[in-house]
Every structure is written in structure tokens, then in C-alpha cells.
């Protein structure tokens, strides 16, 4: 029925005295709850979002980078090891003592596999002729500068790849200066000593290329964000729409206010209905997200059937979680689910700023917050050939865990409320 009845209608209630806003605004209790909630939400969001991105370099914690020594040259006179072995030993020992970088000593094939599976953010490679090319600098046989190669991995995000590249370039430059001291000490000519002070060139190449329409490795994050938002917004729309249709909530569109007759249904059956509708509507929203991003905007993506299935299951998992939280917490459920799926999930996703470059609190959140696991799965499909060890297996596991937790928590709470006879409201007559 509707309460939008013209004031002059025969059955309209007699209008009573109207309270003015200027009178209500002076009541302190009216201000209390929204003021406190707005202040707390603003404070928490500010700390959460800005706290994880302000200084990624200061919070490095075992950022994985491959260290490859292919040097086959003989040791220089007076030395027991060739320069490749000396450089990699020095870099690995320094990184391990500071715990900022997890230097993984791999051969070239292992390093390429680690790049292709997203296990390392980059690699520093000492070529096979490195010692020989350095030794030639002090003779008339030198034809080129010795070179160290830095490999990047843009599939792990532009910031993570950039951090690894900066670390690799710094390590290569320090190695060059160390070698330069050894070489310049053997020369009496000042010009030669100057040229030999920094003898090693550093070249940077992409170790695992991604598509040109991949947003420099950020499409995985934004696509995952779309899936989470589709599940979050869709779940809340289903929640409010069902409550309105069943007569447990009012509908207001502009000046029109409607209250439908209350349908006698308990909390558990209402949750079943909402979850079924969430799963059904997610079929449409997932298809629309893929069509908009890939067909219309041209985002680079392969393994489309796998991407659609993963996207659908991720959206459903989030939507079911939203329904469970709303069923348990009632009116504040939307705020709680916003923190679970958005506020806490975004800064701990590891898709823009690597978790290895965030404070420990965010690394802790990344263990269980859904967006980190889902973005790893999407990233594997988009950039790493849908390899299970590139994050896809972890993504599927998180989806399964999320669905089980949502079902168990949601139905446990509604069953408890129903058993206690806690009805949502007094049924309204037709």
C-alpha cells in the first residue's frame, strides 16, 4: 500500500503539527550516533588506505628477486673465484642480513620459470663472459663494456616491478664500483683510472612480457575490484530488494513511499532466497563485466572460459558473504561487509603495492582477506597462462573457503535467531 495520499483526499489522515528541522537539530542525541560513526569510519579508512602506500621502500620485507650467475670465466690473477661468483655472493649476503630482499639464487631456466609464474618480481643476471670482458678492460683486446642484465616482471604490477628494478640496478652499480676499485688500482694513468672507476654497464629488459592493453600490470587489480564490487553491490541490492518485496522494509522513490503486505517467512528461508537470487543474478553481472572490459574496452585477456568461470565464482563468493553478514548484523550489516570486502581488502590486496613492501599489519590481512587471493587468481589467468602455481590454485581455494564460511556463518546465525523466536518485525496487514 502507499502513503503518498494527496492531503485533500477523503480518507487522508488529519495533518498534525509539523516539527521543524531547526527544532530537531538542537537535540544532541540526534547527532551522537551518525557523528561518532562518520568520525570512526573516516579515521579508519584514512589510516588503512594511506598507511600501506606512503613509503613502500621503508617496509620491504623479503621481496623475492632472482639472482643468476652464468659467469664461466676464470678467476682474475690473485683471486680464487671469478667475478660472477664474487658479485652474487656479496649481493646475497648483504640482502639476507637486511631481510629486505629475498635473493633467490637460480640458474637461468629456473629464473625464467619463476618470472613466468610470478614468483619473483625481477632478476639480476651475470652473463657467461662477464669475468673475461672485465679482464679485457686492462688490455688492448676490449671491444665492449662488461654488462649486467636486469630483468623486470610487469605482470606483478608496475610498482613491484619498479622496486625490484631499482634494487637490481643499485646492486649492479655497487658491484661495478667494487670492480672499478680493483681495476683502477692496477693502472698508473689517471685517465685510465677514471674510465675504470665504474666499468660495468647495466641493461634492463622485460623478463616476462605482458600485453600492451594490460594497464602496465594493473588490469588484474582493477578487474578483481570490479568482481568484488559486483558481488558487494549486487548482494546489497538483492538484500534490500527482497526485504522490500516481502514487506519487511519500506520503499521510497522520491515522494512515494510504499509498504507491501508482509509475507510470513522466517529468517533462514529468507536467506536461502537471497543467496539463490545472488547466485542467479551473478551470471548476468559477470558476463557484463567481461563484455565491457574485454569486448568493448579491449583489455588483453586469454583463457576466456576459465576467466569467466573464475569471475563468476568470485562474484558469488563475495555476494554470499554479503548476504551472510547482513543476515547476522541486520541494519549495520552493509557497513560491516564494506569493511570486510572493501576497506580492509583493498590496501592488503598486494595488487598495486606488493605485500612485501607494506607494514606487517597489511601482510597479516593479506593471509585471509579475499581480494589478495582473488587478484592472484585473476593475475594468473591474465598474465601467467593460468598456471596454478602463479596464484590460480590459491584463488580457487579462497573462493571455496569463502563460500563455505558464508554458508556456515549465515545459516548458523539465522537458525539461532529463528529458534529463539526473534522475528524481524510484526507482520503488517494487506
Structural features, described:
Helix content is 55%, strand content 8%. It has 2 domains: 148 residues, abc type-2 transporter like fold, CATH 3.40.1710; 205 residues, no CATH class. With 430 residues, the protein is α/β, with parallel strands linked by helices. Helix 3 links the parallel strand 1 and strand 2. It is elongated and about 105 Å long. The strands form 2 sheets. The chain has a 5-stranded mixed β-sheet with strand order 2-1-3-4-5, sandwiched between helices. It has a two-stranded antiparallel ribbon with strand order 6-7. It is a multi-pass membrane protein.
Strands, helices and their partners?
Layout: H1 21-24, H2 28-51, E1 63-69, H3 83-98, E2 101-105, H4 108-116, E3 122-126, H5 130-136, E4 147-152, H6 158-184, H7 190-196, E5 201-206, H8 219-245, E6 251-253, E7 256-258, H9 267-296, H10 304-329, H11 333-343, H12 360-365, H13 370-383, H14 392-419
Helix pairs in contact: 6-7, 8-9, 8-10, 8-11, 8-13, 9-10, 10-11, 10-13, 10-14, 13-14
Strand-pairing-aware structural class: alpha/beta
The number of helical elements comes to 14
Rg of Cα set: 30 Å
Order of helices and strands: HHEHEHEHEHHEHEEHHHHHH
Strand content: 5-15%
Distance between the termini: 7 Å
Give the low-confidence spans: 1-12
Care to count the β-strands? 7
Largest pleated sheet? 5 strands, mixed
Strand order of the largest sheet: 2-1-3-4-5
Mean pLDDT: 89
Q: Helical residue percent?
A: 40-55%
**Can you tell me the number of structural domains?**
2
Shape call: elongated
Concise synopsis of the structure shown:
The protein is 55% helix and 8% strand.
